[in-house]
């Protein structure tokens, strides 16, 4: 048996390329929220993969996008800072794109500056003919000397083991940074916040979701009258303007009820426990441009 290997990997890609879905598949647990909408990931989320001969710590970074808000700036700073600090880069691209997009070219430039070993993963290969995949491989190979290029389909996930083996091959020898039963550095409180936000993203129309901020005010363990433990969670859903508040609550409170019910069901699976969840909707005018809020919640620590 070879020596134990460990190290840090950055998962990078433009917004909506499927990074969070890939991360969850690699870990085998839900650590990142997934939606079809852009800019879903806001912070650097660490996932820990324990294997027989290695411990792989993957950070899912916010997707590359153009944005003018304080929140967008912090998200991009986070992504590009992490790229330069890892042992290996996983660069995920959408295989349905015919050429290298402006955002992907920007990522390539950052990878070239970082001079780190990188693996290119071409997503959505089930949607494109084989010759197009070969053309993409050739196009990207001319841009950077990738350690390997792996075509991938999130629907089938056959390539997960291949991706993990390739990462393990690249990583240096090292210790276990986390305990074997850990699969993310996120607290249960932050997981709860993200799950509520995910349900809001999925259920609300285009304009509202990106202005949503979720803060858990109370997270406590209680017992029922029969002595069975459950989590009692209270959370505020903040939006950027008064007009959005009514949309999130919905007619007769129906939308908020739906968001809360779906979030509670997800949490009960994740926490393996009953959950009592109560949510309120409040307005924090233009919080996405508030230096204090954005730095406190999203700045890389």
How would you characterize the overall build of this protein?
The chain is globular, with a radius of gyration of 20 Å. Helix 6 (188-203) crosses helix 8 (254-271). The protein has 2 domains: 5-170, Rossmann fold (3-Layer(aba) Sandwich), CATH 3.40.50; 188-298, K homology (KH) domain (GMP Synthetase, Chain A, domain 3, 2-Layer Sandwich), CATH 3.30.300. It contains 9 helices and 9 strands. The protein is 37% helix and 23% strand. The longest helix is centred in the last third of the chain and has 18 residues, at 254-271. The chain is an alpha/beta fold and 301 residues long. It has helices at 19-27, 70-83, 102-114, 130-143, 160-170, 188-203, 242-249, 254-271, 291-298, and strands spanning 5-12, 45-50, 54-60, 88-94, 118-123, 148-151, 213-223, 229-239, 274-283. The two termini are 37 Å apart.
The CATH class of the largest domain is Alpha Beta
In the CATH hierarchy, what is the superfamily of the largest domain?
A: P-loop containing nucleotide triphosphate hydrolases
CATH architecture label of the largest domain: 3-Layer(aba) Sandwich
| Subunit organisation of the chains | single chain
Helix share, percent: 25-40%
The tally of structural domains comes to 2
Number of helices: 9
Major sheet attributes:
6 strands, mixed
- Classify the fold: give the CATH topology of the largest domain: Rossmann fold
Within the largest sheet, what's the order of strands?
2-3-1-4-5-6
Write the element-wise H/E pattern from the N-terminal end onward.
Answer: EHEEHEHEHEHHEEHHEH
Kindly report how far apart the N and C termini lie: 37 Å
Low-confidence stretches: 33-42
């Amino acid at each position: 048996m070879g020596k134990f290997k460990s190290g840090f990997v950055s998962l990078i890609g433009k917004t909506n390329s499927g990074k969070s879905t890939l991360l969850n598949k690699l870990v085998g647990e839900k650590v990142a929220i997934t939606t079809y909408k852009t800019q879903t990931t806001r912070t650097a989320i660490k996932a820990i993969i324990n294997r027989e001969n290695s411990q792989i710590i993957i950070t899912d970074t916010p997707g590359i996008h153009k944005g003018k808000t304080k929140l967008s700036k912090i998200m991009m700073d986070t992504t590009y800072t992490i790229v330069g600090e890892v042992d290996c880069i996983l660069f995920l691209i959408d295989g349905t794109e015919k050429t290298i997009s402006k955002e992907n070219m920007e990522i390539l430039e950052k990878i070239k500056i970082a001079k780190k070993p990188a693996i290119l993963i071409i997503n959505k290969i089930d949607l494109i003919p084989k010759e197009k995949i070969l053309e993409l491989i050739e196009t990207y190979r001319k841009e950077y000397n990738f350690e390997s290029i792996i075509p991938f389909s999130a629907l089938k996930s056959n390539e997960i083991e291949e991706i993990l083996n390739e990462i393990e091959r690249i990583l240096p020898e090292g210790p276990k940074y986390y305990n074997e039963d850990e699969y993310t550095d996120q607290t249960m409180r932050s997981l709860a916040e993200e799950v509520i936000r995910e349900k809001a993203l999925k259920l609300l129309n285009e304009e509202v979701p990106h202005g949503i901020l979720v803060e858990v005010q109370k997270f406590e363990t209680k017992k029922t009258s029969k002595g069975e433990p459950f989590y009692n969670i209270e959370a505020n859903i903040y939006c950027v303007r008064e007009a959005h508040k009514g949309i999130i609550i919905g007619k007769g409170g129906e939308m908020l009820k739906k968001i809360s019910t779906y979030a509670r069901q997800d949490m009960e699976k994740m926490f393996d426990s009953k959950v009592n969840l109560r949510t309120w909707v409040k307005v924090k005018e233009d919080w996405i441009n508030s230096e204090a809020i954005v730095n406190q919640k999203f700045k890389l620590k």
